[in-house]
Hints:
3 domains, DNA-binding, 12 strands, Lambda_DNA-bd_dom_sf, 6-stranded parallel beta sheet, transcription, LacI family DNA-binding transcriptional regulator, alpha/beta, Rossmann fold
Amino acid sequence: MAKKYTTIKDIAKALGISVATVSRAMRDAYDVSPETRRQVLEAASIMKYRPNFNATGLVKSSTHKIGVIIPAITNYYFSTVITGIQEFALEKRYNIILHLTNDSAEWETKIVRELSLTSIDGILACISSETDDLGHFQELIDDGLPMVFFDRAASSILTSKVVQDDYQGARIATEHLIKCGYKKIAHITGPSGLGLTQNRLRGYHDTLEKHNLTSFGIIHSGFSRADGEKDLDQLFSTNEELPDAIFAVNDRKAIGAMLELRKRGVIVGKDIGIIGFTNDPISEIISPTLTTIAEPAYEIGKKSCELLIRHIQKSSFPIQELILPTELIVRESTMRL
């Protein structure tokens, strides 16, 4: 049985008003009262109405537009991913429409539920660090919209995904610290609900266990430099014995920790080693330079766009999960001499 989509007629019937009034309320026309508009918008949300959706079931023509839902554009990783997406999309004559969530689950849900499904051919999505309810993404898939997750993928949703090898990258990072002579290794990481956080934490734990070592502290927080500073402060204030190395979930947190160590007169590398995860250009500029795990950000963008276009062009194209390798970049922050 074909799925029945909500129309403005359904909303009008539910509220006992005319279709014309519903239409004008949605356009915020001057002759509709604020209360009527509020009722219409509330009903539209509850009834999961999508603006301009082709409810007749007719085949919609291709728009050659791809929506990209992303937490941020101001950091190196996401800007590089977007470059990979855009360059491949333009090569295939697709335009991208960027939707920025500011890493907010509330904004992400609002953006997804207000998408016009006739204005795009598919969605590339990286979930916010706050997201725990993925129902809004499942609704898009149920509506038949092709979707590919990248970087922060929703494991519970059956769709294609493109990610870096977070588990192996964390193993490489922890192994490197151990080979450099560090034994008391702490991990400052991201929100506990994210897949990448869990995979990097698992890689860290498994490598410590391999060498019969135990963790010297795990702190979950956000991904910013300020979060790294706060995490370092927490490590110092809650532990009688300090770690001799820190594995940070990304470079921004690693740099935040380095700056906080500098304030405390701790020599990075000699006293406490630090390794990050990203290979942000700033890791080569800060002193000492930051050892890190390089992520294939450009390739993640390119491959996720390529995969989405395959799904757009062939509805029966099989679901795939691509896991791209990471690389260790050794610099001064893990040199003990």
